[in-house]
Amino acid sequence: MKKLLFSALATLTTLIAFGSHLMGGTIYLTCADDPATANTYEYTITLVLIRNQSGASAPSTPTIDIWGSNTPKYQMTLNAQSTIPVPGPRPYDIHTYTGTAALPVGQHLTVEWNLCCRPAGMLNLGNGQNSASFAFRIAADISTMGSACNGTPIHIAPMSIIWPKHIPWAIAYTAYDFEGDSIHYSLDTSDPGPNATMAYVHPFSTPTGGVQIGPTSGVFTYEADSVGSFNTVIRMDAYDSAGVWTSTNRAEMHIEVINTSSGSNSLTFTPPSSVVNNRYQFRVGVPDTLELSAQTAGTNIDATYFVPPNVDLNNIYFNTEIYKQAATVDVDFSWTPQAGQEGEEFPVVIRFQGDDWTYDYVFTVEGGANNIGLAEADRPSVTIYPNPSSGQITVDFDRSMSKVQVLNMTGQVVLTREVSSSARTVRLSEFPNAGPYFIRLFDKNGDASSYVVIVE
Q1: Nearest to 100 by CA among 12, 58, 36, 40
Q2: Which CATH architecture has domain 376-455?
Q3: I need a surface site. Which of 77, 236, 288, 428 has the fewest CB within 10 A?
Q4: In the CATH hierarchy, which fold is given to the domain comprising 267-368?
Q5: Measured between alpha carbons, how far is residue 137 from residues 22, 65, 373 in Å?
Q6: Can you give the pTM of this predicted structure?
Q7: How far is it, in rounded angstroms, from Cα 79 to Cα 63?
Q8: What is the pLDDT of residues 361-414, one digit of tens each?
Q9: Which of 168, 176, 157, 208 has its CA nearest to residue 360?
């Protein structure tokens, strides 16, 4: 068992196996306002670029363009802050650059970065149009019309995109706005330059899933029809509590689609039933834990989590328990809201990684008052014996369970049995073959906990 605390990384990451060194990116603005200045709002501007390690070097000090409705275009140089290498069969680097700008109040402004040209192997999503002749443009638009500084949304989870062919799949572009603005997500076209659009058509897709993004969740789903490398843009529009537009930023998204028959292995995840409408409430002063589980048909699996950077990680508990033989990971996630945090909420991304595949589960947590009834959600005490077994196994537990499942190492359910609320023991012997299995127990709330057994 291992306990992990991860800092949220507000960046976008992508994967691609073709051509040019540039693989994607985004730009965002966060408020760093000096109240002593009357006619400007100060912002920290962050540019994130993703570079293929086998390609050309990343820029050391990229130059961005800034202009507004009453501000002529001018240039600003950003400084390199960090480079994070990501190893693997498709190694890439995440480059982050920042700078501080004083932007005039009372305007609509654009901040952008350009580079020519796009990777020769990159196709616009679906129509097969080669994008090599187009410039790579990353831009954000922001309003300084309000009475206070207001930044753009930022992504809370890095993107790692390798897409399976002919399997409905999802990844999170979920973002967070420090000023509490609502965020609307949509798909957009890639731009070769200001006020110009590079035409493309979303591809034909099989009946079970096309190109979509959740307008409020930021979860991108797509069932790819063909192998290749494709491009689209995730657009995020932010609106204040009065419904007034405050900003737009666009994340360049590259998808590398590979055949699932080329040795890749699928990953399965069942969301907990206690998360209703993608929301879960943790009470102030009451210990509570969400339990999640995922399986892969491959050999490796793990999980991590991402939250907005202003969340106090001292109040987050994240624990993974990995069962190597069954390629299963169980996750415990808990947030302990403090007094005064009733009604506070933020998005959480739980990321499961199994061999080639990454799968994201996104939900919102909120703080609740401690007088709200909440069912017990801590992990039950379970004893399984004998283990290993010659074929018959006894499972003892210390509380009411609703059902028990037996799954094989590919994640296939081979047995489901209802359990009486008064029972504290079940005996299982329905194992088709020798090998590793995992026993999944469901409590009265529908939350599951998993345990590995070996049948000899």
Answers
A1: 40
A2: Sandwich (2.60)
A3: 77
A4: Immunoglobulin-like (2.60.40)
A5: 11, 11, 51
A6: 0.70
A7: 9
A8: 889 999 887 654 444 445 677 888 887 778 788 888 888 888 888 877 656 788
A9: 157
